[in-house]
Amino acid sequence: MAHSLSAKKRIRQNAKQRRRNRAGKSAVKTQIKKFLNLAKQTEDVDAIRKEFRLTQKQLDQLAAKGTIHKNTVARKKAQLARQLNAAQTKKH
């Protein structure tokens, strides 16, 4: 157990940041699932593109805050872009 005031404050700050990080990661995972389900189920390329942009935005925001590493975000965005491209070519 922490004794000094600064150590107690650090514990509070870490807990708060952990909640924020977990919420952000959970939200982006949900958004990715939403995008993937939409890409599989619908033929509407515009709707898929819109979901892709929202997913990309959330990933970039997490990377900017340092919650997720920027290379992880780049890899995820590339994987999702492949799904988008597959949906676009399937339409044509």
In N-to-C order, the SSE pattern is: HHH
CATH architecture term: Up-down Bundle
Mean pLDDT level: 95
- Overall structural domain count: 1
Cα gyration radius (Å): 18 Å
The biggest sheet amounts to:
none
Helix content: over 70%
N→C terminal distance: 63 Å
Stated plainly, the CATH topology is called Methane Monooxygenase Hydroxylase, Chain G, domain 1
Regarding CATH, which class?
A: Mainly Alpha
Strand residue content: under 5%
The total of beta strands comes to 0
Q: Uncertain regions: pLDDT < 50 for 5+ in a row? A: none
Using the alpha-carbon principal axes, give the shape: elongated
Task: Give me the number of helical elements.
Answer: 3
In CATH, what is the homologous superfamily? Ribosomal protein S20
> Helix/strand-derived class?
mainly alpha
Question: What this model shows, in words?
Answer:
The structure is a single chain. The protein has 92 residues and is mainly alpha-helical. It has one domain: Ribosomal protein S20 (Methane Monooxygenase Hydroxylase, Chain G, domain 1). It has three helices and no strands. α1 (5-41) runs antiparallel to α2 and α2 runs antiparallel to α3. The longest helix is centred in the first third of the chain and has 37 residues, at 5-41.
